[in-house]
Amino acid sequence: MSQSPSPVEIRQWLTGHIAALLEVAPQDIDPDTPLDALGVTSMEEVIITADLEARYGVALPLADMRRHPTIEALSTHITGHTAAHGAGQAPPTPAPVPQADGTPAHESGTDGISSDTLPR
What we know:
Strand content: under 5%
Number of domains: 2
Number of helices: 6
Order of helices and strands: HHHHHH
Number of strands: 0
Structural class: mainly alpha
């Protein structure tokens, strides 16, 4: 996806997806009702977060489902997250942590492990 999805797009997708998981009609889902009150279980939260990542490239921690407990709140949160991090883009790779001698671990060829540090 080349641009960040809108809150409306995410809300519509979440509503349809949750309705399918709960086996109810999408029009029976109120986006302002807490997910647990709709009957979403923790297993379904895992499914939703995995599907959100697959669809929008958003790695959403399960804790965010609790911090943003409605479809409306979650849609707004995800939109802000994709705008800040770029939709479908992986987060930047952190710089390697230097070893005690100051060389990055990847340059030593041993990732910081030497026979001197291993137990005998």
